[in-house]
Amino acid sequence: xxxxxxxxxxxxxxxxxxxxxxxxxxxxxxxxxxxxxxxxxxxxxxxxxxxxxxxxxxxxxxxxxxxxxxxxxxxxxxxxxxxxxxxxxxxxxxxxxxxxxxxxxxxxxxxxxxxxxxxxxxxxxxxxxxxxxxxxxxxxxxxxxxxxxxxxxxxxxxxxxxxxxxxxxxxxxxxxxxxxxxxxxxxxxxxxxxxxxxxxxxxxxxxxxxxxxxxxxxxxxxxxxxxxxxxxxxxxxxxxxxxxxxxxxxxxxxxxxxxxxxxxxxxxxxxxxxxxxxxxxxxxxxxxxxxxxxxxxxxxxxxxxxxxxxxxxxxxxxxxxxxxxxxxxxxxxxxxxxxxxxxxxxxxxxxxxxxxxxxxxxxxxxxxxxxxxxxxxxxx
Length: 380
Prior knowledge:
Layout: E1 2-4, E2 17-21, E3 24-31, H1 41-49, E4 53-63, H2 64-76, E5 85-86, H3 90-101, H4 116-153, H5 160-170, H6 175-197, H7 206-244, H8 247-253, H9 258-297, H10 301-311, H11 314-340, H12 346-378
Parallel strand pairs: 3-4, 4-5
Antiparallel strand pairs: 1-4, 2-3
């Protein structure tokens, strides 16, 4: 924003000059942002402290930066306010007034240091917000379960095409990354385990280490984490984009249930495919561990298979498979819930997509810990 006077100046394009004339500080030239590169600000402020008013009749050009500097100088004069500026044209007066109205108040000093009470208040607000979100998510879970029950009673309401599509997106397309991840985990377990067990001459027990670790914990847990980052975020982004474009509101207007159309197929696809992905991860992890055990310890595949079958309880595999549907439900509910919370801007879409991934991974790990405690109590 710039204001230009119609006063005749000897050199309208000349540099800014500050001339003291008794109690008057005369400003001439072009007071724009470019002039501040060569302007001696401290000297101008010193001159302003010795003046009563600032005369800007000689200014040819002035922009918002110049208006701000004039107001700063005016505060240093004996008048101590914008009324100490004289000789301004109508345009310059309007510009100075506009800049002055947007300056921070004089009493807006530094923010006082936070006290213990402030920290406690902030903590309380966060806890209250977390509790409110937890209640909303539980309510959302109940709504999804009720809709699932209705679909089970009336199978014709199930959108089978959508379920198959999401099964392909969630399961089939995730097979390569899940298989590769589990294979490398098996390799790492065998390599690290052999380095420790070799010290005690117990290399053969690396088979038990790999089998129990992968079948019981790592296979399904890491698979769920990958699915949470890959599919959970995709659910949030897809539903959130529809929410931004008001497509979900249009569904409700047409009498369609967004939960039955958008959320139930995604949750069912996860519940169907996560156990299958967990099984693939278990097989890939065992193959990777067997190959590294053969290379590093000389445990042949036949010995590895024999010890795996004879010394590994089938319940280690069952424990991992029991966890899979619960992990799938957690990922699906959180991903869809965050998508339904997206507002009308792209910022909320990105923020809630990130929150969906973080929350889903965190809740999966919490659920895995609770399952571990439960199975330890029941002796499985």
